[in-house]
Amino acid sequence: MDWNKAFDKTLRTYGVSAKWLSEQTGLSQQTISYFRKGRQPMTTENLGKLLMKLSTEAREYYFSLVLGASVPERSLSFEEEIEELIDKADHAQIAILLSMLSAKFSSLSSSSDLSQEKVLLG
What we know:
Blueprint: H1 3-14, H2 18-25, H3 29-36, H4 44-52, H5 56-67, H6 78-88, H7 91-109, H8 115-121
């Protein structure tokens, strides 16, 4: 895969914005956008700056795309899965989720072993 296409796919996969990368590297959003679209080449130095601001997992993903290697599956932590779910939810879905969490917490609170919940809640 082309460098620019792999870079664009990596940013989309990991939810990284050109604005954030621009702020982190000092490169303009336009330069990053043109590279992503294949309209302008990127110097090795500037590509290195961009890649170093990505997570290790995102960099590995990028290079596996460029090299044509098998792309590792992106596994989310429990917290990331929940955060992604909440980010996509509308008001009604969040209300349902809160109701379900409340019911679950109530059932846990009625059990005899509350030590773990107390630790988690502070």
